[in-house]
TrEMBL record, chains A, B:
Similarity annotation: Belongs to the peptidase M24B family.
Domain named Peptidase M24: residues: 328-542
Protein's UniProt name: Xaa-Pro aminopeptidase 1
InterPro entries attached to this UniProt entry: Creatin/AminoP/Spt16_N, Creatinase/aminopeptidase-like, Creatinase_N, Pept_M24, Pept_M24B, Peptidase_M24_C, Peptidase_M24B_aminopep-P_CS, X-Pro_aminopeptidase_P
Cofactor(s) named in the record: Mn(2+)
Catalytic activity: Release of any N-terminal amino acid, including proline, that is linked to proline, even from a dipeptide or tripeptide
Length: 623, 623
């Protein structure tokens, strides 16, 4: 990896920062955040502006360029990568270290008095704008919105914004028509006494209209906004995608409909002016509902007194609770995914000893097996295929420079998943193709105990996910071990593999209470720098639990694993398991046998079936 | 309980709300919060203004009186009591119920346009003022500070503010001199670049100067403020308490001292004008540190740009970490407390069958035994002595109207504690003087499992208490049971029995990470309305834990019980315990035997010693 040479680029950027064609008055600093106009986690190439200007292409980072300086804030995952990818024009600001200033404090320390700090108002979330603007203002500076994105003005070979065809999902996949989703949304709006709802997150637009796209890699979404009124529906979307007869039929664009279900299709770029028109026409007490993470530009389109901001939108919350059709789809997707992984692990067992299987080969093979399954669309994230010390890099992705060959002497960690038309998967298995050491088995078993503690937990209806996080760590903590990431995230249904508003983490960001139908991952781990990584991840469905008593009639919940891939018993030190834990493993493996075994049989994959049967032999009781 | 007749009082209050002698312009509403000027949890009789105006004397509640209405907001613990104590002039606002408006929303709904809402700026915390003021302002009203407390103007027989003698604590109790505490505080101030620190909480003033008082029942504090500069110390305190030679000597008031340790004693009432003078004399960049819960009046004394507000003060955090002298004091206090409780339980066993022991008699007897112990000062809170259905009322305090007789047929719950000059105690034991039912034993055992899960937990340095809360509930959750309160609170060292900044609760209020030397309670429970209550509470000390490994060199922590009172084995269903849990009980009881047994022996309390020995027989293994 050699750093990107950015001297000319920065010179050019500093010119446009003063160019009256783009800025009313010169800006003394320009902020380049990571995101897109929808605050997406995964972004399209045309939105990788921070990577373009700096060379650093990790998933998180904010660049700030002043007349004298160029600085990059990123977190511990990316210190090394950022240092490698950026040239000496850049200062790396290591977030989380004591002496690293915040962006605001740094700006205050380097800017001349009365400076103007520019940012694209479509990229910066409103809550972040507010925080930053306050600090700058109190130091005598101004945060100003710069309408034209200044990076775009100098990015001559910027890729086009993707505009790929849409997929329509019928009732067998979604369980609820888009009309019924609109009705439910309007009833939530009526409850809160708001007249308008602005859909800004891409997965929320996709979910609402039962459409999918492929504008962003790994995320089956498409660039669009929507504004829902009590009697109107506006969809802001570009290209000839609305010419597709299947889409027109799906959205009933050519049917005679009650006016409140008639969808008005408008250009993607017209969202701001349309929203400003809505904002200008509001009568007193007519509120407009937005996510508090919506962009500053869209938030400002609505006069302050008329805004109704919440951290989670009603769509985000409704989307998290999967209905029967979605749940069944997720089950099917996970069975197919398990078939692919049984094939892969069987293949790896035979091939690894030959010394020709690298991390990249293994990742490709995993994709190949998955792509053979029905309704496969694409991967749901970049496969983490890591062996030995690479396994300890939590967000590792094999590239030629780091690509390591799998062997019988190292632990192999595979964290991978796919998008199927009926569901999204995400599974991690950690295995050894030789003989694991007693220490490796010990660590693996603690992680397994944590995985089981969450998976088998029974807890009251309404419990927030962060209250379960310590269950996953307790066995590790007892021995002085731990892992430095959360335990689980929400998973979409043929949507983003990471979604809100629920999760399992020691971080107590406002997570919504768990309820039956929600789907999260359960993925504790243990990582030893320079040596190995262990993680055991299932996607699990929140289901009602039967309990002996029922305090205050609240009801109880527990989890049902949707992922049905054997957990390598060779890695387990059975002596460290309680009887309850041993039974859990055996019952889990019994279910893998029955459910995935039947599918392997049906698909005629006999060798993988034999592998499955061998790998799911019950653990013997140890005295 | 008959309600207080408030018609005349309210008439009178409404008059002063318009009287130019007290208000510049009439106020259309007046808020009467619960607290005192120090945001104390326990308050002196002269500060019980809300109880005076309404009749409702629960520990939490806010009254608002307008020209037409009088309304009282309180929480679920007090719905019944408030309804009984208030006459028909008052509307009860049940907090936590869906349809109950917030105070702000209610004010907006009842007030005429452009109203002024008055409140005593010394009683309302700054953060609450800010929240309330914002909502009122956006609805066209004004929140205004009313200097003279309007309740005090109509409260003709208001008790005097207490002004009791002080107790000086020498190094053997405190471990650190007040001078060294000032030095440490100033170094924290220097770290944050603040020039002044304002001590507003009563327990923080007491801790800082190694003084105690008895102005507030159960809390060994005295009314005072302090303002610490880098070179000055001001103590605001009334009465002739500073004439006491012991106090003068302790504070070195008559010694020749370096000027930066010279304490300037000022009248309690002069804090505002002195602080305003400090505020007026600040140079740029000179910040003043205040708790964000300090009163609006004191916060406003410092111009906004000069304020440095934090949720927890450096004193609050330093006070929470007990030094060796304090820890040893707490140990001694808990041994003495255990002696008193062994005496009590032995006495109860003999007396309860006679049918003459009521809840009040038992509480008084507990106090009597405690008062026989060395350095006993007073109780640390109102004893919760409750039998049968009264045990299910979590904040129960026996009064003649509810006083129930202990019997061999009901569970008895005693939650009590004391202030000794060397430490503060708080212990709950639940017992049966006859034969508990299988169900009662089952519930008790789940609570015990939760208690042990917290007490024996091993967790990394820096873990926040809320991450341990679920450990206390897991056994109950497995059976569909739970309890609706937190698991633990910080405990002062001969100070308030409830103190911040740490605790163990499902509520994720910003609690500070646990560290060795902190002291918290571990008190899970189970309550069945109308039937019984179970709680098992020890005060525990955070100590370093030895672990097999040491991830990232972070070190691990666990708890050591300071409370050493037998847990009634008769109530335990041994079949429900794991071997580890059984061992925990046996080792705990062994320690009670050794430590408390030796003290009982030393005090010649042979009958109580025999009771202790019998009650700490090891649990047998069950197959």
């Amino acid at each position: 990896m050699s750093p990107k040479i950015t001297t000319e680029l920065l010179k050019h950027l500093r010119q446009v920062m003063k160019n009256p064609r783009y800025v009313q008055e010169p800006v003394q600093a320009y902020i380049v955040p990571s995101g897109d106009a929808h605050q997406s986690e995964y972004i399209a190439p045309c939105d990788c502006r921070r990577a373009f200007i700096s060379g650093f292409d990790g998933s998180a980072g904010t660049a700030i360029v002043t007349e004298q300086h160029a600085a990059m804030w990123t977190d511990g995952r990316y210190f090394l990568q950022a240092a490698h990818q950026m040239d000496s024009n850049w200062t790396l600001m290591k977030m989380g270290l004591k002496d690293t200033p915040t962006q605001e404090d740094w700006l205050v320390s380097v800017l001349p008095e009365g400076s103007r700090v520019g940012v694209d108002p479509f990229i910066i979330p409103a809550d972040q704008w507010k925080r930053m603007s306050k600090v700058l203002r109190s130091a005598g500076h101004d945060l100003v919105p710069v309408k034209e994105n200044l990076i775009d003005t100098i990015w001559t070979d910027c890729p086009q914004r993707p505009c790929k065809p849409l997929i329509t999902l019928d009732l067998s996949y979604t369980g609820v028509t888009w009309r019924d989703k609109i009705v439910a949304l309007r009833s939530k709006m009526a409850e809160r006494k708001v007249m308008w709802f602005v859909v800004t997150a891409l997965d929320e637009v996709a979910w609402l209209f039962n459409l999918r796209g492929s504008d962003v890699e790994y995320n089956p979404v498409f660039f669009a906004y929507s504004v829902i009124g009590m009697n109107t529906i506006r969809l802001f979307i570009d290209g000839d995608r609305m010419m597709d007869p299947a889409v027109r039929e799906h959205l009933q664009l050519d049917s005679t409909l009650e006016p409140e279900f008639k969808i008005q299709v408008l250009p993607y770029g017209s969202i701001l002016s349309e929203l400003q028109a809505v904002g200008a026409g509001l009568s007193p007490k007519e509120k407009v509902w937005l996510s508090d993470k919506a962009s500053y530009a869209l938030t400002e389109a609505i006069p302050k007194a008329y805004r109704y901001l919440t951290p989670y939108t009603p769509i985000c919350i409704a989307k998290a609770v999967k209905n029967a059709a979605e749940t069944e789809g997720m089950r099917r997707a996970h069975i197919k995914d398990a078939v692919a992984l049984c094939e892969l692990f069987n293949w790896l067992e035979k091939e690894v000893p030959k010394g020709t299987v690298t991390e990249i080969v293994a990742a490709d093979k995993a994709e190949e097996f998955r792509s053979q399954q029905k309704d496969f669309v694409e991967l749901s994230f970049a496969t983490i295929s890591s062996t030995g010390p690479n396994g300890a890099i939590i967000h590792y992705k094999p590239v030629p420079e780091t690509n390591r060959t799998l062997s019988a002497n190292e632990i192999y960690l595979l964290d991978s998943g796919a998008q199927y038309k009926d569901g999204t998967t995400d599974v991690t298995r950690t295995m050894h193709f030789g003989t694991p050491s007693a220490y490796e088995k010990e660590c693996f078993t603690y992680v397994l105990k944590g995985h089981i503690a969450v998976s088998a937990a029974i807890f009251p209806n309404g419990t927030k996910g962060h209250l379960l996080d310590s269950f996953a760590r307790s066995a590790l903590w007892d021995c002085g071990l731990d892992y430095l990431h959360g335990t689980g995230h929400g998973v979409g249904s043929f949507l983003n593999v990471h979604e809100g508003p629920c999760g399992i983490s020691y971080k107590t960001f406002a997570d919504e209470p768990l309820e039956a139908g929600m789907i999260v991952s359960d993925e504790p781990g243990y990582y030893e720098d320079g040596s190995f990584g262990i993680r055991i991840e299932n996607v699990v469905l929140v289901i009602p639990a039967e309990t002996k008593y029922n305090f205050k009639n609240r009801g109880s919940l527990t989890f049902e694993p949707l992922t049905l891939v054997p957990i390598q018993t060779k890695m387990i030190d059975v002596n460290l398991l309680t009887e309850k834990e041993r039974n859990w493993v055996n019952e889990y493996h019994q279910k893998c046998r029955e459910v995935v075994g039947a599918e392997l049989e049906r698909q005629g994959r006999h060798e993988a079936l034999r592998w499955l049967l061998r790998e799911t032999e019950p653990l013997a009781r140890v005295q």
